[in-house]
Amino acid sequence: MDPFSFVGGNKRYHTWNDALRRRYGQKVCKIPLNAGFGCPNRDGTCGTGGCTYCSGQKSGDFGGDPSLSLESQFHQMKAVFEKKWPGSRYIAYFQAGTNTYAPVDVLRETFEPVLAFPGVVGLAVATRADCLPDPVLCYLEDLSCRTDLTVELGLQTIHDETARRIRRGHDYETFLRGYRALADCGIPVCVHLINGLPGETREMMLQSVRQVAALRPYAVKIHLLYLLRGTPLADEYQSAPFPLLEKEEYVQLVCDQLELLPAETIIQRLTGDGDRRSLIGPMWSVRKREVLNAIDREMERRGTVQGIRFRPDPPCKKEVDF
After folding, report:
1. Alpha-carbon distances, residue 118 vs 32, 81, 85, 89, 175 (angstroms)
2. Residue 134: strand, helix, or coil
């Protein structure tokens, strides 16, 4: 396999940046927006308080200010990106909260004006697999025919025992139903996974990637679990500490996971970095560039590339029941 068949530079995996440059012929930036959507895992529909790792910003710690209009949020971030990448195009990223957790008329009133913002070529909509009723799916299918749409689904883990511990609010089968419903509509899906969740072994994290790889998703985000003050998981850690991943351990794990994912799957993220003001650990996570460089070096040292160990057949179900 040609390690540079998808990407430029020293990357040995299918980067989001390069995929967008190939499609649009220029830099495309993702602008996070906060439309103020709620979450069924907070309002009592399927839980209260949200996932144990989630902050009060509902996974939008670096997103826009919900007190501002979407237009103001967009132009605020656009001004920042313009200084670094003048003349870029943009994907509007509805990041915070569950962005399909509303009636279709509300979604339409939220998404449609953003498509007309200057330079916008598409939307990324973060949501949960249990918030995709048929009317919403029909609207998303229509959107995907008119713009570059990606729906981002938080899975985090295939292991239901872990999902219950982190109060995810739905199981793996629910994720699969949501994923397949989107795929049946021809909507590209980006699956989110978290490495380092409490109680999970290295093999369990690899099993999650193997199962996701078998779906051949359009894109994947791999996050590092980090602890933020004020979250239920931070409280759990303070009272009964559990191991946090070390940097070298994380780098080796991510490289193993990249080898297992299909070569065509776009890698949108390979780590995570929380707000330094509230971060408990791992503290090495704030040096994001250093982590990404270490992943590049390890892939080169191995002489490996994304997809080299991909197997299209899904593992037997009993292999993932712990």
Report:
1. 15, 13, 15, 8, 34
2. helix
